[in-house]
């Protein structure tokens, strides 16, 4: 890992807030990356820094040079690409009392940092502030979280009904965050895992005002085959640490749902052995998986069930049922 900092003259003093952007720094991401950086600065008076973690070796050298000369931006290179490790390195390298995250294709709304820091100051025992925002699809802004208020009343159960921690939605208070929170993050459903660890151990505050915009694209990770494959092991890991029975029942429901989608995915690809495998795995999630027993008839008839392409858990938003 190597670090490059801008001139000291460009940094007026110690930052009060660090915003961490993990990026592969690809040439095609340059415009959205600098849009993200600019959005962090816009409308805020809190002393801050943008900490860019260049994740892996596929970066564009010209883009990295531009980052190294950008004001209030500190650039860190992580030699081996790993999104989970990039988050951990970013947290470790930042020293500000408050920190948050932003993807390189999303943006903060003007004044977002000030709003979040002020809200956290008013809740001195809270380790994390969860805020609302917009998800932009086809140039239309839609509210990202519909039941965010529930996260303050019961953060654990509400998390598995609606993931209230999208990547750009949280602000963390360093003094309340355990050192191991970002260590050994689940390599899939990263933000669900972080929110789960916070919800079971720490206090969560809520700011039900829009502070971010997520830009959704047709080729987003949550629609990929690999994403479908990664969901079951990530949910099983959560089950290993989850002790509340009401929360476990909801997680088992989503595990069964993810296996059902995988079965339909492989049926659609005419890979029948794998389609049967994931169907049987789904049925073993009893009793939650038993609701899909009729899927066996579809498999026997080699027909794909309707609705099998619906979205899964995602990085922030509702848990959709088939």
Word description of this protein:
The chain has eleven helices and twelve strands. With 322 residues, the protein is an alpha/beta fold. It has two domains: 2-215, Spore Coat Polysaccharide Biosynthesis Protein SpsA, Chain A; 222-318, no CATH class. The strands form two sheets. Strands 1, 2, 3, 4, 5, 6, 7, 8, 10 and 11 form a ten-stranded mixed β-sheet that branches. β2 (17-23), α1 and β3 (48-55) form a beta-alpha-beta unit. α8 (225-241) packs antiparallel against α9 (245-268) and α9 packs antiparallel against α10 (272-283). The chain starts with a strand and ends with a strand. 42% of the residues are buried.
Roughly how many Å is the radius of gyration? 21 Å
What's the total number of strands?
12
- Apparent shape: globular
Q: What is the chain-wise order of helices and strands?
A: EEHEHEHEEHEEHHEEHEHHHHE
**How many domain modules?**
2
CATH topology of the largest domain: Spore Coat Polysaccharide Biosynthesis Protein SpsA, Chain A
Shape-level CATH architecture of the largest domain: Alpha-Beta Complex
Cα-to-Cα separation, first versus last residue: 44 Å
The amount of helix comes to: 25-40%
- Summed up, the helix count is 11
Proportion of strand residues: 15-25%
pLDDT averaged residue by residue = 88
Name of the CATH first level of the largest domain: Alpha Beta
Fourth CATH level, the homologous superfamily of the largest domain: Spore Coat Polysaccharide Biosynthesis Protein SpsA, Chain A
Query: How does the major sheet shape up?
Result: 10 strands, mixed
Low-pLDDT runs: 3-11, 308-315, 318-322
From the helix content, strand content and strand pairing, which structural class follows?
alpha/beta
